[in-house]
Design goal:
Blueprint (H helix, E strand, L loop, with lengths): L7 E2 L3 E5 L5 H8 L2 H4 L9 H13 L9 E8 L5 E11 L4 E8 L8 H16 L4 E7 L3 H9 L3 E12 L2 E11 H6 L1
Parallel strand pairs: 5-6
Antiparallel strand pairs: 1-2, 2-3, 3-4, 4-5, 6-8, 7-8
Length: 185
């Protein structure tokens, strides 16, 4: 079980629970084709963003396997919503988790994804006591692969045409890190 102390702050970011006031800034990037390109969903209209925001608002703690923490990633200097980051508790028995992140293109290339995702790794390993955390991505998403590599995650698998996404076969890359690797970082 894990209930983080919010807000979580880094050198440049504030990670906090989502609020209803985040709707328009969240929609500003979830509606972009470039953001949805390598994800399972299409660009979202305002009503769909609102429905997913309601889910994000409720995802602030991990009580049991299958739950997720979904935090707003805020650029502390500007106060703008830069994106979101997630930690999913995928297996209690095997002490496994998964991280993910989505950023507004205005914040790409600044190291914000790695800075925020490192906090999800910290919560998973140090807070929840996970043994292994993975990051999964579309094989064409080279920028996301660089983020996971920057975190020190190891590329473990390249699954060829393993999912049918948006009307086409897509390949997936899996990165992972073990708790002992996190501690040695």
């Amino acid at each position: 079980m894990l209930t983080p102390g919010y807000p979580i702050t880094t050198e440049r970011l504030t990670l906090r629970p989502f609020t209803p006031q985040d709707l328009h800034e969240l929609h500003a990037y979830e509606s972009l084709p470039a953001v949805a390109r390598y994800l399972y969903w299409e660009p979202r209209d305002l009503d769909t963003t609102r429905a997913f925001l309601d889910k994000k608002i409720a995802r602030t703690a991990l009580h049991e396997e299958g739950e997720a923490i979904d935090v707003a990633v805020v650029d502390t200097a500007s106060g703008r919503l830069a994106g979101n980051c997630v930690l999913i508790w995928t297996s209690k028995q095997h002490r496994q988790g998964e991280i993910g992140y989505v950023l507004h293109p205005d914040f790409h290339g600044r190291g914000y994804a790695a800075e925020a995702a490192a906090q999800m790794l910290r919560l998973g390993f140090d807070g929840l006591g996970l043994h292994r955390i993975v990051g999964r991505l579309d094989a064409r998403n080279h920028a996301s692969a660089r983020v996971l590599e920057k975190l020190g995650m190891r590329r473990e698998a390249h699954l060829i045409d393993n999912e049918y996404v948006k009307g086409a076969w897509a390949s997936e890359i899996v990165y992972a890190m073990l708790a002992r690797e996190w501690q040695q970082r």
